[in-house]
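Q: Convert this sequence to C-alpha cells.
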Amino acid sequence: MRVLIVDDSRAVQSILTRILVGLGFEVHVASHGREGLERLAEIDRIALALVDWTMPEMNGLEFVRAVRTRHEYDGLRLMMVTAETDMDRVVDALEQGADEYLMKPFTKDMIVQKLELLGMMSASTDPLPQPPLTR
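A:
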C-alpha cells in the first residue's frame, strides 16, 4: 500500500519512513503541500497521506482543503501528524477533511494505532489490502 509523507522536516520524514516501511508500506515523500499535490498527481493509488501542519509554500491544512476539493482523491485517507496541539487546531483539521490527527512527538505504537483506526492495518500490524482508487 502506498503512503505519502508531507513534512518539511527531513528527520520526521526519515522516522516516519522507517516506521512505515517496517510495517510493509511503500513510502513517498514531499517537503510541502504543493509538492504533496504534485506527488498525488504523479503516483497512482496513494491510500494515505501523513501531513504536517507548518510547512513552507503550502501548509498542511491548505493541503487537506485542496485534496478534499478533488473527487479523484475521495478515497485518500489524511492524517495530520503535527506539533500543533491546540484543540481548536485539531477540530479545524478534522472539520476541513483530515481523517485522523496525531500530535508530535509520536511512537511507532501510536502510528500503528492510528492506522488501525483508519482501517489501514489489521491488529496483527499487517497493511490491509486496499481496493484500487479510481482516477
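The two ends are 16 Å apart (CA to CA).
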